[in-house]
Amino acid sequence: MIEAYEKDGLLTVTLNRPDKANSLTGDMLSELADLFENADPLALVLTGAGEKVFSAGADLEEARAGLATSPLWERVSGALAALTCPTIAALNGTLAGGAFGMALACDIRLCVPGASFFYPVAKLGFLPQPSDPGRLAALVGPSRAKLLLMAGAKLTTEEALAFGLVDRVVARADLMAYAEALCAPALTGDTANVRTIKAMVG
Known about the structure:
Strand order of the largest sheet: 1-2-3-5-7-9
Distance between the termini: 31 Å
Strand content: 15-25%
CATH superfamily: 2-enoyl-CoA Hydratase, Chain A, domain 1
CATH topology: 2-enoyl-CoA Hydratase, Chain A, domain 1
CATH class: Alpha Beta
CATH architecture: Alpha-Beta Complex
Number of domains: 1
Largest sheet: 6 strands, mixed
Radius of gyration: 16 Å
Number of strands: 9
Shape: globular
């Protein structure tokens, strides 16, 4: 359910559970954490299978059994954020719940038209992953972060772009090619220079 493919230094990771809205199980999170902790590609693109949802967050049955508050979420986003290469979230559809952590941990976020964004932890009685509020506020500002996290607001594609939550909206047919094109300087240029620029930006 996690597909990873590396070619010429570009690691593409796909959440492949479209029949369950790419919701994440504990096993999938463990696999992602191990993958990100041990990977050293020149660039990474994270995406989802299917045409509607990048990920709905936690698998519903496992969430009820405790996955919603598992430290695995933070382990995954922390490992992704720690990668020194450029990382791009190519959001093929809606981003919800705990899946926010992975997208927020990436350097760049792309999405397709019609994607929506919501993180209803307050409504569900949970806290967000520890690093998510800070990363979210850094992108959209404190008030808008509270709009998402405290009020449970649902953002449209246009709102997400205007807020700075996503960086570009790309036609579905062009999404992966566009993401790969953004990786070109890291794949064909001076690797050390690209990684130093990432470290300088923070």
